[in-house]
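Q: Fold this one first, please.
A: Sequence and structure below.
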Amino acid sequence: MNAHFRAREHLRPDAVLHDVHAALLADVHPVIRLLRLLERHVPSIARVATEQAAAHVVRHRSVDLLVEAALNDGFGQIVVVGAGYDSRAWRLPGAELATWYEVDRPEMAAIKVAKLGAARLDVDRVRRVPASVHTPAWLVDLERAGWNRHEPSCFVVEGLLHYLDQGRAEALLDELWAGPAPRRVLLSFIEPAMSRRVTPLYRELTRSFGEIPRTFFERETLGAKAAAAGRAWRSWDYPSQIQEFAPGALGRSAGLSQLVGEAR
């Protein structure tokens, strides 16, 4: 669904995010087909779908710029945790200067390789790490793929934390923040209060795509955890601060979005 949102955004004349590869990756899911039909005939559905799409692309664009900053600062290892249909390794300026790793379930990685390979993109642009982040063993698999814990690394954890239970999410952050070399951890998260503010229609439409987010992190809690690990923390609120990443998109979304944070 997220690739579908990015593909739609790419075609907008006022797009805040351009992802030429998103259309290759977008699934033609039956729910998406139904949503397209309903959008044409039900104004309330069209409005909520627009809000969902805008929330995603603003989040994604925000993380884009933070990854670009890490690349510009010389981070030579970019690790996308729970990569899904992420395409940053092929489209961000300076991406070729880093070694990219994508951690994901083997079946998801196989679908992605098939889609990109059919379009003759260089599927070896990234090193694939078939692993589940539900256990700490994923770090062993990451090292087997060539990742060096003694070299600077930028970890991208976008749209993942709310799929984990709280204990595993906290453990994952501890694993990411620990290490002898410079690290940046870019993540998105949903505060409980944000989840409570959404309309019933927005919530049900989100559920129709299998998205039932677990919301347990406050930004202050994450800041305290980062500080305890010796990391500086900053976060961006939506919509008051996120406009520095995607000006012009704020009027399109009043629904649930995810905050963006960075620990370094």
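Q: Good. Now the second chain.
A: Here it is, same layout.
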Amino acid sequence: MLLLSFLILPFLASLILTGIHAYLGVHVVERGVIFVDLALAQIAALGATIAILAGMDPHGGAAYWISLAFTFLGAGIFALVRAHRGRIPLEAFIGITYAVASAAAILAMSKATGETEHLKDMLVGNILAVSGHEVAKTAALYGGIGLFHYIFRRKFLLISTNPKLAEQSGISIGLWDFLFYASFGFVVTSSVAIAGVLLVFCYLIVPSVGAMLFADRIGPRLAIGWTMGTLVSALGCYFSVWLDLPTGATIVCTFGGVLLAMFLVRQFIRRRAPIPLQERETVLHDRR
């Protein structure tokens, strides 16, 4: 009972992260910008590092707004680049942004003596230390962002799955891309403060990838992603306390292990499933 009472707040925080990130992960995977979360999370971490360098409390309101301002800047850049990228893939710009933001954060932290622990927290987080106030505030913020995405879900999904059709329908791709990345920035800035860059990335991508192994439609993907995130969060928190390991890194590794298990199960199911008649005839024809 003592262990359960200790883990209840981190587990609730994990559920909140799972709820919003599994949904956003569907959009990210469909858009083919897998590392946009990692890049925006690192930009948010850079903003927090600048705030620390300026002598601010890393958990204070001023540091949060500086971090959010950096994230909005990144959101504007990504929306602008997608509209005028030409032959250069957006993923290339995202990778460059992540590398530059990471290097800039390291340079800034090198001048903030005695603050290297905060750099570690930005990477792997310390979700065990989350407070009830942070959980409630994050739940309210993500609930508002979730409502915003629900109201405009058709536009966001159309842009993610079929941008050409969205443009032909008269939707302003640049405007709605910025709104998507800006709302994404709110989520990332808050999530990084709780869970760190690596864990935020896993909550976004891994449930969506795991769901794609078993489902093609958005609804089933969300159901599988939310279930996976919930189970991994519970297992990761438990292993962290039981084995006395860093919580963020433990959940990340648990995500990797569960995804590997899901892949093996999917391969087993495919081998056991009967081959459709049309596909069997095609195989026999190719062998001839």
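Q: Anything worth noting on the second one?
A: Confidence is low (pLDDT under 50) at residues 283-287.
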